[in-house]
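Many introductory courses stop at the sequence. We go one step further.
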Amino acid sequence: MKQSRSEFWSGEEYDAQYGNYYSDEISFFQDLMLHRNILSLLDVCCGTGLATIPLSKKLSHAVGIDFSRSMVDFAKSKSSNISNVTFYEKDAVSFDLKSVFDLIIMTGNAFQAFLSDTDLPSMLENVKKHMHGNSFFVFDCRLPCPKYFEKTHNYEYWSSYTSYSGENVDVYGLDSRHPTLSNTMLHRVRREYENGMQYQSYIELKYRSIDEIGDRLEQHGLQLVERYADWKKTTLTESSTSFVGVVRPL
């Protein structure tokens, strides 16, 4: 089963909503780049390049891929005057850039978008194919814990942001268990604009334990070498609800 594209319909809206959320991720990667002599970057599920573009300033070249044409088009427009960054519309389960990178990243909990037991291995196989012996793969995801499996019976207010056109947008969500997939939540999203317009979408998120993730990685010649509770490198504990993994080839 493939992830719905409905939540990723607009690069402009995505950028407006999430544009200020990536400072911790960028700091994490800049520190890694500084200490590991990283010169090339591949951003898988890059969205509008919120991490790719700022990180490219310290690299020889950076590439971002995303399955949403709108995301890629907006990332291209944002980076039109930057010569060392390139964006492609490609699916993480089937891409082949015929190149390897020092650092491969996957942010925004995109790891959870690979819902099936065929898509996740395909993505990991592709990541491994684009690594050399000293490459890093770094990703984040939420962990299976009670708060992430809570259901709601009505749309509840989540957040607000200012749209690309300058309108206030209120975001509401309705959470339920996925009807056919285990450990998977279905989040229905409704955006309400000042002009009365509404946009409805949904997104599915798969939750896997760290042990399962580690096993999956090893099946594809990868190993977890560092693990944190967040991008600030908070120590991971049994009560942690999120996870950042640093991965190297076996």
